Amino acid sequence: MTKANLYLFKWQALDDMGQLRNGENLSSQPREVLEHLMDQGLQPLSIKRIVKLSQRFWKNKERIAFIRQLATLLQTGLPLTMSLKLLANDHPLPAWSCILTDVVKQVNEGQPLSTVLQQYPLVFPAIYPQVIAIGELTGQLDNCCLQLAIQQEQIIRLQKTVKKALRYPLIVMVIASAITLLMLTMVLPEFAKIYLSFDAELPRFTQMLISGSDWIIHYGPVLATIIGLSYGGYSHFLHPQEKWQWNEQRWLLKLPIIKKLISYGCLCQLFQTLVLTQRAGMTLSAGLSAAESSISNLHYKRAVGLLTQQLAQGLPLHKALTDSPLFPPLCRQLVRIGEESGALDTLLQKLAEWHAEQANELAEGMAQKIEPLMMLFMGVIVGGLVIAMYLPIFNLGAAMN
């Protein structure tokens, strides 16, 4: 039974001694919290819903920190239940403390940790319970948790590098737009009043900018409202639809540099997941299924799903890779060598490292190339506005005479 649509509730209650007690609880509705408190012999005073625990609430950093800390505690020789209890008691976030408390309770009742984590699909992606299940079967739970943490950290590090490279030009564009809007709506109109008071003809370039400034002042709020409503409608109604996401990602895969970034990132994540699952003792098909659930790009997700189907039909992985244009020849060649030599995990590790290096180099190189172009763009925009405002000053003396 999975636990979805959870909310964090904060409650106050009185115990048998009349002492006031406070706490938090995860549940889908207040009635369940009420019943839980009464089962504990508490008299509820107030139950307040704090926040809905959607998938975005659970951050990768906190998830990775939990699994790494669990690995560390297990490596010191502490039992699983005691390790989980320590993490639950010491966690600074109430939602995580509630989750881990429930995990401790179910593990104490005899449930495997992997089975308990499956009940929280929004908190723990599919690869977490899958790898932990292998650790439970092989008796190497600490090592599996550590390898899982390392693999997830590598994926997050790569994603941050790519996002940083893409975020820089966006920030510059926003700053340039804000400066342009400020000068057109606040600075330029004041200059225009001064110019017009002399009844002198303004330069053509200045006239064009003043006309643009008037248009923005009169119609800008309406345009901003339309853009805001359109973006809100798109974000809430169209973007969540899989069809729209598929079309968006297909369009991005047609852009040369963006296509490479997406390709390197998805392939790195695929091969890192396969390395982890292979070394944990999972079958190749199970590893592909775990990779499919962790990849966000729908085109690569579908391609990995087709690989799983072809492997189930008895096709070797290197031949299955041939049928999809999303997997370059290098992948097919190294996978074939790995399958024939019996060192598939080693070759998969090489592929993961190569794609991670390519993604990092491309992202850093793109940032270095875009930086001077963005500075030039800002210089042209701001410089053009300054020239337009001060150009009439050169004729101001003649106008005054």
From TrEMBL:
Location comes to: Cell inner membrane
Sequence intervals crossing the membrane = 170-196, 216-234, 373-393
Q: What is its main location?
A: membrane
What family is this? Belongs to the GSP F family.
Q: Name one GO biological process term.
A: protein secretion by the type II secretion system
Superkingdom field: Bacteria
Q: Where's the Type II secretion system protein GspF domain?
A: 66-189, 272-392
Provide this UniProt record's keywords sorted from A to Z: Cell inner membrane, Cell membrane, Membrane, Transmembrane, Transmembrane helix
This protein's GO CC annotations: plasma membrane
Q: How does it sit in the membrane?
A: Multi-pass membrane protein
Q: Does the keyword Cytoplasm apply?
A: no
Q: Which PANTHER family match?
A: GENERAL SECRETION PATHWAY PROTEIN (PTHR30012), PROTEIN TRANSPORT PROTEIN HOFC HOMOLOG (PTHR30012:SF7)
Please tell me the species this chain comes from. Rouxiella silvae
Q: Which InterPro entries match?
A: GspF/PilC, T2SS_GspF_dom, T2SS_GspF_sf
Q: Which residues form a coiled coil?
A: none
Q: What name goes with this protein?
A: Protein transport protein HofC
Asked if the record carries the keyword Amino-acid biosynthesis, the reply is no
